[in-house]
Write a structure and sequence with these properties.
By secondary structure, the chain is mainly beta. It folds into two domains: 41 residues, no CATH class; 44 residues, no CATH class. 7% of the residues lie in helices and 23% in strands. The protein has one helix and seven strands, in the order E-E-E-E-E-E-E-H. The strands form three sheets. Strands 1-2-3 form a three-stranded antiparallel beta sheet, with no helix packed on it. Strand 4 and strand 5 form a beta hairpin. It is elongated, with a radius of gyration of 19 Å. The two termini are 36 Å apart.
């Protein structure tokens, strides 16, 4: 990671295999790289919740929640660990 610039970074998905510095993608494309930065990302989805809970996800925000924690429509329902941009693990512990 001696020289990272936006022009030297290529974001790909679907890595099938890695041999030495050659990455084979699921579509068959082969890419040569010096460094791999593995990022999983995260999408909020709650398919197990009934629509009566009125939880929606918009632009990575779960709504309607008070303080990113308690469902405004159903105050006995809470979501621990959603605000990941604010020192997440100490915050999860406090919640």
């Amino acid at each position: 990671l001696l020289s990272l610039s936006s022009s030297s970074i290529v974001q790909v998905k679907g890595i099938e295999s890695i041999q030495s510095n050659v990455f084979t993608l699921k579509d068959g494309q082969k890419i040569t790289a010096d460094t791999l930065i593995y990022c999983t990302g995260y999408d909020f989805r709650f398919p197990f919740l009934h629509e009566s809970c009125k939880i929606t996800v918009d632009n990575k925000f779960v709504m309607p929640l008070w303080k990113h924690l308690i469902n405004i429509e159903h105050p006995t329902m809470s979501f621990i660990g959603l605000p990941v941009t604010v020192i997440p693990f100490p915050l999860f512990h406090i919640q």
